Inverse folding.
């Protein structure tokens, strides 16, 4: 399967931003404040640094890959069979990711906005969007991202400005009291939700970038802006709602939007603010879905991936209702298994692959130099 | 695979008919040479035109002994009568008997051509088909006794409309001339604005039956060669019997058919076309239509009025913003109304909610049907208003405003708030300068309303995302429709949402024009030198 | 029953529109993969609609991760 | 072709969805609740009363118009074991589906408040339909149900009247406190701060208040009046603060926007209009294990009214006025603190919170028995109000009158 689509480095940044912010906006403030209370901003800033390191690491991986995508690279390093099996792990990961995100979207909307609508319908709704955008290709996805990110940022900016009058700086005190253990937990959560999933971008960089030389900084900048925006939301949650209220909420940033009230006119606009989350969740889901479809097509070695979108999309919809049977399972699984799973998928396997590749290459070049000399 | 079968059969049906037609056409067009007998030539032409009443045939005798019989044939009303008069005069009077030596057959035609015909473009024609086509398109044909060829003199003189202010795009400040139905006038309007040898006009004939003249205009060196080639290619691919209007061409060459959005810009304004040509675009002019299409075109172009460039930059920018805002109102206002009223009542301030609830007390329809009803009524009103004779217009607005608005509210069929929303939508819709975009919004609005009725604001967001995806898949002659927003091009933002001062717009749009990007150089602000106070 | 029928109809409709496209480009392998995939998805969908419990992929992940987590704790 | 597939998919999905609009509720099918009252019922459950507005009456421009007077609101009451049950049971009475998103005010009955408000709060914050921007008040000496049955003048909606006058009195007189759900939740959860809610009282005869006669006379027989604030300890109401003490409390909390202080001067009174004030709570830990608290109030004031013979432009007059004002404020504060410490043993000022913020380690030590420590701590109050201007005139008319 050979895809010739190329996106610009700027579009890569846009996708990175939307990918890191999707769902993270919604759920991370409560998980972070649950661990470190009003110090959550400290751990999220530490988290940003780790995320930046990670994105640099992915760029390094990408450099080794040349003009191949991650699954081709795995096949290269481990041989066809083993490579395909590890690739399948990633497809499985992305498939689960898509289904889980559909589920997140469903839970969010049925909890806050459309309480009696069957959740499957909302899953199907989002699935239609992601199927149609992935069918249209990466380029369209990137361009849609460029069109939509303006709105996300405008809404975010509006939210920050409207909330300024409600800020109470003393909610940040007492600061620096959380224990290092709590900080570690919070940081692991942050990185596992915002940073490690960026591993899926190995399917896009550097293969589908028209100027890979510039992609490095754009990718890192995208990560920085995305995680930075998340941190801003966390800080805002603490400043406006207070740490304990934030930790208690299921979707604290939505409650944050609920508290907006300026001049008694700009108020009760949380349904509009929900656009931020809907858009960013859409893009995160779409990228996961794109990677799972393209990866699967790669493993099957078919000519193009487009025909796989509909059956795979439908499968995702079915699994989205199975994957999280209820909120309790969701929070339990996300807390216990998601971070180690992501550390394996997002860090250990790429690192191991990179090292193996380096050793192999050195071995080869030695052999080559030996044979020539 | 029954679907495929059906698709195939339908396709085949269409294909067979078109094949038949072309076959019959080509049989007719079999080369038929002129013969030397004047009588039979005239008869042949008469027959092949079915003795048409507008074919005028005059037979005159010229030469020393009035021994040369010449037949003059033309179509009534298609030629310039004054020019014809000149032609006949010179044929009869100027040609001296000595000039014509009847025996020298080869030089007779060229003699007449050289000496007698003083006007217009002249061709020598040997076959009937070309001759007939010429006669039908404003030529006078001279058939000479004993000559198997004819002289065709181009003296077109169509009845034509003068250059008037275009109806579809009026403005306050700026030139008031508009294209007309005559191709020559239109090209002259362009030529008058761009007096450069680089303005190239390439002619084509499209339509098997109508044989409509189509001109491709572009500025050599500015327009991308690829796009010009692509335009030629797409125009050549057209195999249709009739091209009656630019819209026909537009529909046949556009990239994507299944979209409500116009991917090709069309205008009646020569200044707009000239401006776009100078940005490196290609214009297509079609004979018989005052509309000229320009490719490739982007979505933002449909928000730009040519007046923007004749006004102060800041005011033009404000107007642009207003138009984009109106775009969203026209697109979303009714759906937002439905969404808020049926799903998100908490968004309304209590007092407003109470007053709307009071208005809706006793209205039998749900908000969605109420909105649908009003929107449909308005669409009907508008459509009726466009097609109606001017004189009835007054009555129409009375019926529309009073009977439908006032009475419907008083009868408790619709609420006041709904009427306000619908009228706001309608007014906002008129703010968009390009009619074809305005129409597409009308269409999408209904989809949005349905989505809002089912899912509230989530549905509206869903619709917007879907719309964005759709817009991003569109291309116009290979150029992404949503550029320069997506893909984002910073330099091109100067003429999109904003209209920067002209001196700062020193580059042409990147995606359209790759060869000659720089518009002006070393021309910063046109500030005068600061005067020393002497 | 009615639901299962509806799902089948949807799947058939999609297949009718997708397969000719693939056939046009002579992608036979793809047609086979597509068909298998569609049948698989349809079966799962029908099972799901009829309330047959379907294993949760996350449980699988949890099952494989448990020994590793136990190692650390 | 792609588009066709998509279109068909879309229609397949949209046909069943269009036929079922799950969450739709038309505006005119809603019973818009503007106020909610929570009382105890006899059988250990809750009685909920809901004030529902009558849109056509509220929105009607011409009052009366010959068609007679409908009350702008109707109050329904129902009871159940838990709050949610009682609210759902209300649908047996309400003509339409109850809609709670536009609640302006929640009145908690005194009895419920004395037993604890946890249960009530849980429902209020869990239900997605409810918002957090309503104010919560406590009914004093009467049931919440009765409060919601009084009709009011000018503001047709009693709930709106309660809302607006709470805002006005809090902003201009500073004896009430605007508490919304988020604030209340934070206070209840916080270990070093106890919640306070404003009290509402029915002045006059509650029976007459329920009939339109009440609003048709120029002098209403029954009125809703804010009266003091209720102090809570561990989510239970423990006692009331009177007007002066409430003011003192608000000074310490720093929520005084503007108020008036009346001081005695030269056998007359001078009204000082406080324009802005800020409070600072500084804990000190030097002596022993019990900390001492320093409360510092600073602010600016104008002279608002002078009812005595006084030469304002003399230089020592301002300082004397300042001194008296400071003393007055200090009195308010100390009486409030005393009451909280001695009688209610409830840290309504948030001293504990402040200690937590200043010195988290110390707080860890004393946190568990803060309730015992709080009544014993020393509180030092320092007030420093600066008088800046005299209004639009300088010396009072009194001076000229007395010269004659």
């Amino acid at each position: 399967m050979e895809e010739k689509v190329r996106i610009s480095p700027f579009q890569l940044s846009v996708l990175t931003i939307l990918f890191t912010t999707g769902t993270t906006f919604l759920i991370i403030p409560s998980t972070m404040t649950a661990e470190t209370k009003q110090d959550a901003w400290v751990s999220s800033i530490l988290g940003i640094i780790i995320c930046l390191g990670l994105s640099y690491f992915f760029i390094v991986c990408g450099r080794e890959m040349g003009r191949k995508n991650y699954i081709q690279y795995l096949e290269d390093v481990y041989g066809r069979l083993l490579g395909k099996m590890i690739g399948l792990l990633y497809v499985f990961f992305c498939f689960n990711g898509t289904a889980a995100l559909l589920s997140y979207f469903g839970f969010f909307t049925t909890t806050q906005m459309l309480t009696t609508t069957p959740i499957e319908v909302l899953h199907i709704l989002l699935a239609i969007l992601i199927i149609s955008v992935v069918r249209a290709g990466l380029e369209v996805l990137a361009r849609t991202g460029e069109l939509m990110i303006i709105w996300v940022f405008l809404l975010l900016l509006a939210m920050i400005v409207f909330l300024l009058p409600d800020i109470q700086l003393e909610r940040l005190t007492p600061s620096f009291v959380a224990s290092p253990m709590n900080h570690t937990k919070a940081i692991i959560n942050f990185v596992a939700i915002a940073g490690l999933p960026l591993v899926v971008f190995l399917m896009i960089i550097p293969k589908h970038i028209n100027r890979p030389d510039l992609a490095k900084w754009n990718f890192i900048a995208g990560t920085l802006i995305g995680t930075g925006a998340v941190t801003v939301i966390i800080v805002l949650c603490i400043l406006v709602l207070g740490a304990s209220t934030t930790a208690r909420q299921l979707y604290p940033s939505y409650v944050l939007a609920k508290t907006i009230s300026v001049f008694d006119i700009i108020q009760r606009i949380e349904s509009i603010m929900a656009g931020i989350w809907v858009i960013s969740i859409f893009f995160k889901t779409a990228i996961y879905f794109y990677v799972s479809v393209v990866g699967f097509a790669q493993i099957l070695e078919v000519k193009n991936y487009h025909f796989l979108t509909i059956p795979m999309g439908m499968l995702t919809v079915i699994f989205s209702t199975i994957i999280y049977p209820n909120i309790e399972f969701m929070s339990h699984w996300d807390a216990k298994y998601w971070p180690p799973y992501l550390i394996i998928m997002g860090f250990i396997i790429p690192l191991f692959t990179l090292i193996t590749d380096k050793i192999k290459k050195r071995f080869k070049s030695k052999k080559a130099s030996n044979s020539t000399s | 695979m029954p679907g495929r079968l059906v698709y195939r059969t339908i396709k085949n049906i269409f294909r067979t008919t078109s094949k038949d037609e072309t076959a019959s056409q080509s049989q007719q067009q079999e080369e038929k040479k002129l013969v030397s007998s004047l009588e039979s030539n005239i008869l042949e032409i008469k027959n092949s035109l079915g003795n048409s009443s507008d074919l005028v045939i005059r037979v005159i005798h010229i030469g020393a002994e009035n021994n040369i019989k010449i037949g003059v044939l033309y179509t009534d009303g298609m030629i310039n009568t004054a020019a014809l008069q000149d032609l006949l005069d010179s044929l009869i009077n100027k040609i001296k008997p000595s000039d014509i030596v009847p025996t020298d057959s080869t030089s007779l035609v060229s003699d007449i051509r050289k000496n007698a015909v003083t006007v217009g473009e002249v061709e020598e024609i040997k076959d009937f088909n070309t001759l007939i086509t010429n006669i039908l398109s404003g030529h006078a044909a001279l058939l000479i006794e004993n000559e198997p060829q004819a002289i065709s003199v181009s003296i077109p003189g169509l009845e034509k409309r003068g250059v008037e202010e275009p109806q579809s795009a009026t403005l306050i400040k700026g030139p008031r001339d508009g294209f007309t139905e005559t191709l020559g006038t239109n090209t002259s309007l362009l030529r008058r604005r761009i007096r450069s040898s680089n303005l190239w006009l390439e002619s084509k004939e499209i339509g098997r039956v109508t044989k409509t003249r189509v001109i491709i205009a572009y500025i050599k060196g500015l327009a991308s060669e690829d796009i010009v080639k692509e335009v030629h290619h797409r125009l050549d691919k057209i195999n249709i019997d009739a091209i009656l209007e630019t819209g026909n061409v537009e529909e046949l060459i556009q990239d994507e058919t299944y979209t409500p959005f116009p991917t090709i810009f069309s205008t009646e304004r020569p200044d707009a076309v000239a401006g776009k040509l100078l940005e490196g675009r290609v214009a297509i002019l079609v004979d018989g239509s005052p509309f000229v299409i320009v490719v490739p075109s982007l979505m933002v172009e449909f928000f730009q009025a040519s007046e923007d460039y004749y006004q102060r930059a800041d005011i033009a920018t404000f107007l642009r913003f207003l138009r984009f805002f109106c775009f969203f109102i026209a697109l979303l206002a009714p759906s937002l109304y439905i969404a808020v009223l049926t799903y998100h009542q908490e968004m309304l301030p209590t007092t407003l909610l109470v007053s709307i609830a009071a208005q809706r007390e006793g209205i039998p329809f749900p908000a969605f049907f109420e909105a649908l009803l009003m929107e449909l009524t308005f669409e009907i009103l508008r459509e009726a208003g466009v097609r109606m004779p001017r004189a009835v217009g007054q009555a129409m607005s009375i019926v529309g405003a009073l009977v439908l608005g006032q009475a419907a509210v008083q009868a408790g069929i619709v609420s006041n708030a709904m009427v306000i929303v619908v009228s706001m939508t309608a007014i906002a819709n008129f703010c968009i300068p390009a009619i074809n975009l305005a129409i597409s919004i009308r269409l999408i609005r209904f989809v949005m309303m349905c989505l809002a009725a089912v899912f509230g604001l989530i549905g509206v967001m869903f619709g917007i995302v879907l719309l964005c995806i759709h817009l991003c898949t569109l291309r116009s002659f290979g150029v992404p429709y949503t550029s320069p927003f997506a893909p984002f091009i910073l330099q091109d933002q100067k003429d999109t949402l904003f209209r920067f001062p002209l001196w700062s717009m020193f580059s042409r749009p990147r995606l359209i024009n790759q060869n000659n990007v720089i518009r002006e150089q070393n021309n910063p602000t046109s500030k005068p030198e600061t005067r020393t106070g002497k | 029953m009615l639901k299962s029928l509806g799902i089948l109809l949807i799947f058939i409709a999609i297949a009718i529109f997708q397969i000719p496209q693939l056939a046009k480009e002579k992608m036979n392998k793809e047609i086979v993969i597509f068909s298998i995939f569609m049948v698989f998805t349809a079966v799962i969908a029908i099972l799901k609609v009829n309330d047959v419990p379907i294993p949760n992929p996350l449980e699988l992940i949890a099952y494989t991760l448990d020994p590793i987590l136990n190692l650390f704790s | 072709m792609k588009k066709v597939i998509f279109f068909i998919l879309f229609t397949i999905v949209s046909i069943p969805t269009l036929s079922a609009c799950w969450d739709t509720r038309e505006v005119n099918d809603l019973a818009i609740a503007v106020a909610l009252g929570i009382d105890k019922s006899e059988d250990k459950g809750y009685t909920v009363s809901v004030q529902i507005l009558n849109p056509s009456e509220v929105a009607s421009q011409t009052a009366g118009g010959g068609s007679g007077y409908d009350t702008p609101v109707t109050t329904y009451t129902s009871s159940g074991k838990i709050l949610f049950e009682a609210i759902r049971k209300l649908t047996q009475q309400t003509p339409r589906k109850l809609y709670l998103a536009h609640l302006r005010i929640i009145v908690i009955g005194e009895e419920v408040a004395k037993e604890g408000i946890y249960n009530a709060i849980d429902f209020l914050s869990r239900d997605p339909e409810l918002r957090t921007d309503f104010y919560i008040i406590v009914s004093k000496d009467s049931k919440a149900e009765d409060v919601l049955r009084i009709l009011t003048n000018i503001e047709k909606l009693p709930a709106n009247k309660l809302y607006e006058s709470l805002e006005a009195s809090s902003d201009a007189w500073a004896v009430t406190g605007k508490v919304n759900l988020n604030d209340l939740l934070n206070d209840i959860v916080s270990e070093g701060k106890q919640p306070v809610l404003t009290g509402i009282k029915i002045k006059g005869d509650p029976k007459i208040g329920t009939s339109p006669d009440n609003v048709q006379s120029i002098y209403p027989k029954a009125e809703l009046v804010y009266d003091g604030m209720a102090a809570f300890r561990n989510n239970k109401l423990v006692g009331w603060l009177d007007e002066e003490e409430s003011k003192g409390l608000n000074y310490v909390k720093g929520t005084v926007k503007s108020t008036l202080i009346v001081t005695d001067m030269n056998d007359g009174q001078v009204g000082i209009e406080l324009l802005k004030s800020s409070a600072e709570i500084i804990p000190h830990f030097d002596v022993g294990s019990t900390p001492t608290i320093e409360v510092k109030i600073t602010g600016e004031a104008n002279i608002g009214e002078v009812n005595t013979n006084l030469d304002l432009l003399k230089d020592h007059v301002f300082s004397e006025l300042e001194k008296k004002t400071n003393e007055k404020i200090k009195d308010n504060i100390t009486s409030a603190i005393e009451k909280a410490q001695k009688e209610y043993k409830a840290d309504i000022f948030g001293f504990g919170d402040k200690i937590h913020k200043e010195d988290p380690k110390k707080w860890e030590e004393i946190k568990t028995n803060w309730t015992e420590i709080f009544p014993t701590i020393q509180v030092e109050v320092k007030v420093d109000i600066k008088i800046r201007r005299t209004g639009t005139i300088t010396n009072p008319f009194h001076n000229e009158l007395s010269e004659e």
Chain A has one domain: 9-358. The CA atoms of residues 1 and 302 of chain A lie 5 Å apart. The longest helix of chain A spans residues 338-372. The radius of gyration of chain A is 21 Å.
